[in-house]
Design brief:
By secondary structure, the protein is α/β, with parallel strands linked by helices. The chain is built from 23 helices and 14 strands. Pathway: Carbohydrate metabolism; Entner-Doudoroff pathway.
Length: about 600
Amino acid sequence: MSKPLNDTLHRVTSRVIERSRETRQAYLDLITREGDSMGERSAVSCSNLAHAYAAAEEDQATLVSGRGANIGIVTSYNDMLSAHQPYGRYPERLKIYAREAGATAQVAGATPAMCDGVTQGETGMELSLFSRDVIALSTAVALSHRMYDAALLLGVCDKIVPGLLMGALRFGHLPMIFVPGGPMPSGIPNKEKQRVRQLYAEGKATRAELLASEMGSYHSPGTCTFFGTANSNQMMMEMMGLHVPNSAFINPGTKLRQALDREAVHRVTQLTRKGEDYRPLGHVVDEKAIINAAVGLLATGGSTNHAIHLPAMARAAGIIFDWNDLSDLSGAVPLIAQVYPNGSGDVNHFHNAGGMGFVVGELLAEGLAHGDILTVARGGFADYAKEPGFEGEDLVWRPVGAAGDDTMLRPVANPFKHDGGMRLIEGNLGRACFKTSAVDEARWTIEAPCRVFQDQSSVAAAFAAGELDRDVVVVVRFQGPRANGMPELHKLTPALGVLQDRGFKVALVTDGRMSGASGKVPAAIHCTPEALGGGPLSRLRDGDIVRVCAATGTLSTSADLSDREPAPDPAPESGTGRELFGMMRHLADGAEQGASAMLASGGM
């Protein structure tokens, strides 16, 4: 028997519901109006319909008859990114599955999909976060045609899933299901990859050795296998009930992957107004679903990027969720999964040990998740505590049972850590996030003189010159949304890790981002207010004593900043298309609000 809902979950959920009362009602009113006004395709003019049906070929007669649902496919396919390469042939298969259900499917549109792994440390990274807004806008363009009764959202990686959801929620009168592509099979052990990276940072490994190591890890179609933002996305879609249950971590090209894709198509036809079980997206994504997503993030040690994405996704549904909510939940939700970079095994090992089925089952049994959320699954959220498989040729779901590897998964009664490892720290330097789940508790408090930088390359140069061989808080500022698009600063991790391994007390403070791949070095990230425009970080000087403490929730300096002039704002950079995103930088709101230009300017 499940325990009653945890008191902290109840309190935070109630707080979010009350805080969001007006904005949520305005959102629900919006999607009701949209559903009423967009109505049936039969009300659309014949000329409009002819344009939409012209290329439908064998599906044309079904579309003209209006009998079956027409499903819009929004795809993030490209074949440069391993995670999205499998989507290349999805449309033709999804159309076949739709015909089996008496429905039709059309590719409604495509979104860009860029990769933080490819742009890491490059100027293209300054477009990355705002690509989420572009993806949301692209999704809206795709769904703006009054042709669809439902939609399938094909996306996996960092900004793609949040962007798809943010755009799709503006069409929340339609039922929708996310269709994941699945992770690539496991490559070389993650610890070996990390070892070679640090050797290269110290000049003890060649570039050829580094490239060979990296390609041994990222080696075939599918999502990267570490538990970064991409796989955290997939976990959160499970926790929100937006996937066919437990479909997140099934490898591409397998029989089971195809069976789950088929089930997604058949199921979404049942969720339409033409089916028997109407479940619009805007009602599936409610306050409880957002809380479940946050709980999953904490219980599995997921990506810090979601401290930005989760408030933005919530806001697109009229829900106001902030870092206080995330921090309070972190104090109540134990860490029950250890996936690299928090542990040694990757998402394939995680899935094989019980994966999301085990996590959901434990959280439900302990009153640490809302079991009464509306999901896309027939049986509700309890279905997500089961794992898919075959009985003969039939797709079935079975109970997961105990974890298969206690180095990967543990019950709530015996967790890896008693909190979720995502803490809010604040003080006279602002508010920031500190991910404790991968950091040794002895390093949760760092107090040392700071060294201030304005870009990653300057940190690398100082490291190479031996200038950081001491106790130091490395401050990298003017990396916020309005300054340069808030790039991810993962390129700093190897050098700072080397300093820490040399016995120095080291921490990072930045208004930039770090990903789910950030690891053992204590870091105060996503600092807000950002340095641009006179934020506290702009007033720090080399040598100021800075204290970063996850135990007490402190981010402060002993220096008196009140009478100092801020460092001058840097001029915006151009090239790599960065100048095209000037409007987005100018309009962006703060990291805690979601760092979105679209949501800030749209009044949401």
